[in-house]
Amino acid sequence: MIVVGLTGGIGAGKSTVSAQLAAKGAAIVDADQIARDLQAPGAPLLDTMAERFGDHIIDDDGALDRAAVAKIVFSDEDALKDLNGIVHPAMQAEIQEQIDAHQDTDRVVVLDFPLLGENPRKGLAATIVVDIPHELAVERAVERGMDEADVRNRINSQITREQRREVATHVIDNSGDLEALTRQVDEVWSELSAIAAGETAADPA
Ligand code: ADP
């Protein structure tokens, strides 16, 4: 197997690329999904969180009251540190377990990580960054049903496009149509799947 990273700012098209890669046979390790699963109703991590922050962070249905947690950590640095100390190791362990499941195969394992630019990961065979101008990201995210002000806030709190591109070995420009996106995904996939299969990458010339 080879392990590659996939990231992009909100609305860039990361999920679309991830789905296309999955359809081609990539094994996707989805950080957002893992975070949701680890904090789903009844998950053991919730007990650990409740021990630290109080039972009121779990609602009557056994679900995590995210707003209650956000309220606690918003103004309390130690609480935020503790929260990260609970969630991060569990995330890392689950990520590692999902990667290890493909050990000794010829799979391309894609780490679909929204914050890969913020937290670069060592040992990746490649890092794919899906890149688009901010205005287009806003337009597409709003079309998808997100609140415009919320999207703009998130973009402003993320690293810049330039910073994200710095971690890239492969930049996918998603300012065109879906066909143009698919063509680029096809190209990246041919290269990566060849490497995973143990072949030498095609001569770029
Ligand atoms: P991200 O996961 O990076 O936030 P998505 O993959 O969900 O972004 O894409 C945001 C929205 O834009 C989705 O509704 C998606 O279907 C749409 N989209 C993605 N790429 C294109 C494209 N090249 N042309 C038109 N719409 C696109």
SSE topology:
Layout: E1 2-8, H1 14-24, E2 27-30, H2 31-38, H3 44-53, H4 66-74, H5 77-100, E3 108-112, E4 126-131, H6 134-143, H7 148-157, H8 161-166, E5 170-173, H9 178-196
Parallel strand pairs: 1-3, 1-4, 2-3, 4-5
Bound molecules: adenosine-5'-diphosphate.
- Number of strand elements: 5
Ligand kinds:
adenosine-5'-diphosphate
**Helix share bin:** 40-55%
**CATH topology group:** Rossmann fold
Largest sheet: 5 strands, parallel
Indicate the structural class: alpha/beta
Spatial strand order of the main sheet: 2-3-1-4-5
The top level CATH class name: Alpha Beta
Shape: globular
Q: What is the average per-residue confidence, as pLDDT, rounded to a whole number?
A: 94
**Rg, nearest Å:** 19 Å
Report on the structure:
The protein has 205 residues and is of the alpha/beta class. The chain has a single domain, classed as P-loop containing nucleotide triphosphate hydrolases (Rossmann fold, 3-Layer(aba) Sandwich), CATH 3.40.50. The chain has 9 helices and 5 strands, in the order βαβααααββαααβα. It has a 5-stranded parallel beta sheet, with helices on both faces. α3 runs antiparallel to α5. The longest helix is centred in the middle third of the chain and has 24 residues. The structure holds adenosine-5'-diphosphate (ADP). Adenosine-5'-diphosphate binds next to α1, α6 and α9.
